[in-house]
Amino acid sequence: MLGGLFSSTTALIVLGVIRKELPFTKIILFTIGIFTFLLFVGIGLSFTQAGQKITDPLFGKEKHTDAGRAFIWDSTFPLIEKNPFTGVGPGNYNREIGKSRIEHSEEYRELYYFYETTQRGHAHNDYFHLLAVFGIPSFLLFLLLGTELYRRLITTKLSYEHSLYFFGLSGFFISGLFQCYFQDDEVVILFWILCGLFLRLSKNQSDFVEVA
């Protein structure tokens, strides 16, 4: 959700304010239309079984990973502190976080239940997971990738029609604050495909401008 809002805002600023390719009236109508659509969809889903699966965790009626993120992050921090530059290594996160939780629950017994009932496969945060598994160098490279990609997005000379396909890439790095998208093949494959297409089209556009 936050990633979508961030990428949509970026697109509106770049295409509407900076490049002035989106008429103000269309921006307002588009925004109102989206919020109205989401409102009616939300109301409709709230009366269905599928909608209740989404709303029940929000009101504490059933266990949900959103509530467990604090415990997952809390048991991930010791891994980062012990291995700041090299990380624990690929494939070792699950084992090492188990050790971290045992040590922490011995000191804070009231947390034992929460550590046992929350998942331990990944850190539910791309940044924390990279720090824990690969260390500070990989974390800095990830930040560099996100920063450079965002810079290219807001300065792109691609046409309006082509640009719209790629602004969602910026939201990937915001959504990564609450989930490990680099651990989900179905997400990260699409990310790299879009990233490659964007950079290739940008290079072609740059070469065309230089020739002209």
Description:
It is found in: Membrane. One of its GO terms (molecular function) is ligase activity. Keywords: Ligase, Membrane, Transmembrane, Transmembrane helix. The chain crosses the membrane at residues 27-47, 127-150, 162-181. Residues 5-143 form the O-antigen ligase-related domain. The chain is mainly alpha-helical and 212 residues long. The chain folds into two domains: 2-56 and 138-202, no CATH class; 64-134, no CATH class. 74% of the residues lie in helices and 0% in strands. It has helices at residues 2-18, 24-45, 49-58, 65-82, 93-107, 112-117, 126-134, 136-155, 160-163, 168-175, 185-211. The longest helix has 27 residues, at 185-211.
Task: Encode the helix/strand succession as letters.
Answer: HHHHHHHHHHH
Provide the gyration radius in Å. Answer: 21 Å
Into which percentage range does the β-strand content fall? under 5%
- How many DSSP-defined strands? 0
The major β-sheet equals: none
What's the mean pLDDT score?
A: 81
Features:
single chain, 212 residues, mainly alpha, 74% helix, flat
List the helices and strands and how they pair.
Elements (H helix, E strand, L loop, with lengths): L1 H17 L5 H22 L3 H10 L6 H18 L10 H15 L4 H6 L8 H9 L1 H20 L4 H4 L4 H8 L9 H27 L1
